[in-house]
């Protein structure tokens, strides 16, 4: 068993560690199909070997070549540490600065088998959301961080540590970019080649920025989505007895079961892979598991209490679309519609490499076809998506309210020929709205988004105290806000007051809530003061999901409700990354891809270490002001009235903030006359 000191001692070369290969007890990523030419295979192997001195090339080259041909990528399993991956208390990391130790803690949490989807392939969530491309990179990064001073910055190129470069104490300790590809070459096929060559990487959102906190990270957002869907579509805050049908339990989608229970509705979630299903059940996130569709129908008919049901089989015929087909059959037979709300959270940003399993094949058959006949698998997936959409359309006609969960479901269904077009709709609109357009968009325009923190002590008592601090702060602010804002605060106060009893911690001692700019700053400053006072025993990392007010330009998700023609522009996310960097972030990240997939999104995030110092308070105040106001200002300029009011109020509170405000066209006839002339 290795130690933290061992894994921070650079690459183990004398002697080389034994090659244990894949651990059969762990789930593994699907085989990738980069379709490299012979010359490209040669280049991939050459690129991998450059991490090692020539004296080891004869030993490593054959096994790396075998990995490339067998799995479609060189993961360097030989260098996977035997030490249990988890977020160890910050004081246990060998380092010269706690800022570096906080990054090490967050990296190891992302690779914790309790957290990561495919830990040995360094995939945190989403089927292909990488922390690093290979284990050599992990070891080099940990080594650099252990030696880093506060006058150095670690530069990361798509998983590859370019090195430590001189900088200032006020500079970020790490600058991360993932998947920064020339736009004309940012296609799926090009990505598969570049990843196999080891020159680019898909970091999803918080996988490649080291800020994932387990499925809890999306539980709260899913809870708010379901609650607000009930308010919008069903006209009620009370979801007792209502049925929410969706699919996916692998990574972030594992949050759906817990969110349904907290919201008070009946959740029916399909999952075709037994491994994540059992994992969520053992973690207590699922209340019941069944492989019987008829049993599920009977349970839905009961509608007596809050339940969470899971459909399990190793066969795809119990996946989400056939749940809907069976519900449709029940409706046609009896006239009773057994579903009220519907969505889908499969990894359709990655539809042909394990993100979506088609109805026609068993789980095992699908994985086999995926690697042996990629084009045939693609055809099968697209046929399945058309069938999926047909069932959704019929249930929606009968009264089910469906929304796209930002996973590229409608985008890929449209590409497959599914009937999801919106007559007269714009480029980002479909027959069904995305949850941003109809449910969460107003929240973003008000400045609310997923703020989170991690207690680096690993002590649950610190987390409980920070929960109480956050709730108290929000309760104080909510007394003096408008009714519209107060509802958001009340939802979050309820969430944070009940968070402990729902046992949502998986991995690090972390928490998430949705807050606006004022709330985030006040919570951060209050936690920082508690560290200074010794009430919280160790520093706290604050962060957020990239899926936020300012962090992501994504025309089919985060910016799908931007209608001035700029939905496909990415200035906001890039500006946010740069602005966070020089306003005090401990580390920053900018990614191509995330959520709806490679080439479809630009997104970024940050981590900031609160250590109880005045300097940390100054950084938090300055950076969080920018991190929210940037996106609200952009949404205001696009014509969003809620964002207009929000940024106007923010300018009144902060006289140093001056935003260019739009003048709306009040008389459309001016345009008509000008264009007719």
Automatic annotation (TrEMBL):
Domain Urocanase N-terminal: 85-211
EC number assigned by the record: 4.2.1.49
Catalysed reactions, semicolon-separated: 4-imidazolone-5-propanoate = trans-urocanate + H2O
Keyword annotations from UniProtKB, A to Z: Histidine metabolism, Lyase, NAD
UniProt key word Chaperone: no
The protein's required cofactors: NAD(+)
Domain Urocanase Rossmann-like, chain residue ranges per copy: 214-439
Gene Ontology terms, MF aspect: urocanate hydratase activity
Pathway: Amino-acid degradation; L-histidine degradation into L-glutamate; N-formimidoyl-L-glutamate from L-histidine: step 2/3
Cited InterPro entries: Urocanase (IPR055351), Urocanase-like (IPR023637), Urocanase_C (IPR035401), Urocanase_central_sf (IPR038364), Urocanase_CS (IPR023636), Urocanase_N (IPR035400), Urocanase_Rossmann-like (IPR035085), Urocanase_sf (IPR036190)
Annotated stretches, region: Disordered: 11-33
Keyword flag rRNA-binding: no
Pfam families the record matches: Urocanase, Urocanase_C, Urocanase_N
Occurrences of domain Urocanase C-terminal (ranges): 442-648
Highest taxon of source: Eukaryota
HAMAP family documented for this protein: HutU
Record-linked NCBIfam families: PRK05414.1
Family: Belongs to the urocanase family.
UniProt protein name: Urocanate hydratase
GN (gene name): uroc1
């Amino acid at each position: 068993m290795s130690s933290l000191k061992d894994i921070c001692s650079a690459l183990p070369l004398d002697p080389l560690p034994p090659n244990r290969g894949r651990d059969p007890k762990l789930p593994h990523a699907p085989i990738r199909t980069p379709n490299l030419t012979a010359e490209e295979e040669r280049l991939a192997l050459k690129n991998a070997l450059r991490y090692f001195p020539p004296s080891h090339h004869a030993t490593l080259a054959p096994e790396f070549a075998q990995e490339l041909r067998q799995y479609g990528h060189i993961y360097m399993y030989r260098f996977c540490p035997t030490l249990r991956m988890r977020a160890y208390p910050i004081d246990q990391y060998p380092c010269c600065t706690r800022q570096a130790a906080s990054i090490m803690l967050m990296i190891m949490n992302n690779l914790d088998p309790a957290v990561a989807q495919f830990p040995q392939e360094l995939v945190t969530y989403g089927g292909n959301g990488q922390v690093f491309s290979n284990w050599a990179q992990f070891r080099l990064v940990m080594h650099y961080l252990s030696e880093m001073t506060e006058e150095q910055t670690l530069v990361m190129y798509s998983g590859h540590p370019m090195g430590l470069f001189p900088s200032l104490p006020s500079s970020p300790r790490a600058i991360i970019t993932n998947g920064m590809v020339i736009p004309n070459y940012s296609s799926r096929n090009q990505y598969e080649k570049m990843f196999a060559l080891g020159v680019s990487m898909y970091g999803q959102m918080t996988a490649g920025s080291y800020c994932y906190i387990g499925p809890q990270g999306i539980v709260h957002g899913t809870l708010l989505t379901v609650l607000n869907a009930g308010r919008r579509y069903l006209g009620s805050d009370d979801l007792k007895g209502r049925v929410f049908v969706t699919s996916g339990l692998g990574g972030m989608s594992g949050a759906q079961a817990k969110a349904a229970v907290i919201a008070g509705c009946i959740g029916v979630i399909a999952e075709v892979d037994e491994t994540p299903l059992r994992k969520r059940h053992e973690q207590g996130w699922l209340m019941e598991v069944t492989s019987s569709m008829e049993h599920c129908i009977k349970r839905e008919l009961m509608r007596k209490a809050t339940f969470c049901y899971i459909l399990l089989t190793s066969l795809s015929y119990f996946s989400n679309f056939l749940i809907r087909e069976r519900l449709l059959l029940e409706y046609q037979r009896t006239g009773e519609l057994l579903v009220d709300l519907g969505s889908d959270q499969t990894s359709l940003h990655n539809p042909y490499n394990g993100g979506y399993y088609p109805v026609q094949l068993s789980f095992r058959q699908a994985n086999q076809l995926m690697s042996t006949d990629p084009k045939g698998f693609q055809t099968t997936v697209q046929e399945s998506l058309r069938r999926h959409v047909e069932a959704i359309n019929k249930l929606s006609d009968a009264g089910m309210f469906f929304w796209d969960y930002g996973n590229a479901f409608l985008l890929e269904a449209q590409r497959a020929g599914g009937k999801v077009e919106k007559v007269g709709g714009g480029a980002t609109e479909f027959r069904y709205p995305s949850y941003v357009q109809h449910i969460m968009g107003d929240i973003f325009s008000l400045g609310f988004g997923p703020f989170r923190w991690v207690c680096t002590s690993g002590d649950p008592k610190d987390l409980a105290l920070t929960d109480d601090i956050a709730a108290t702060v929000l309760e104080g602010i909510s007394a003096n806000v408008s009714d519209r804002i107060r509802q958001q605060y009340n939802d979050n106060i309820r969430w944070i007051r009940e968070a402990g009893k729902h046992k949502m911690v998986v991995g690090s001692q972390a928490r998430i809530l949705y807050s606006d700019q004022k709330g985030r700053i006040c919570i951060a400053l209050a936690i920082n003061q508690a560290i200074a006072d010794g009430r919280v025993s160790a520093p706290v990392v604050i962060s957020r999901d990239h899926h936020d007010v300012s962090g992501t330009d994504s025309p089919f998700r985060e910016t799908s409700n931007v209608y001035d023609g700029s939905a496909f522009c990415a200035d906001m996310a890039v500006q946010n990354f740069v602005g966070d960097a020089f306003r005090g972030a401990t580390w920053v990240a900018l990614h191509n891809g995330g959520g709806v997939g490679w080439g479809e999104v630009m997104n970024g995030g940050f981590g900031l270490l609160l250590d109880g110092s005045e300097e940390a308070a100054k950084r938090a105040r300055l950076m969080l002001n920018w991190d929210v106001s940037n996106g609200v200002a952009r949404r205001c300029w696009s014509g969003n009235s809620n964002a207009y009011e929000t940024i106007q109020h923010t300018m009144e509170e902060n006289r140093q903030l001056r935003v260019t405000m739009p003048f709306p066209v009040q008389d459309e006839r001016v345009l008509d006359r000008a264009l007719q002339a």
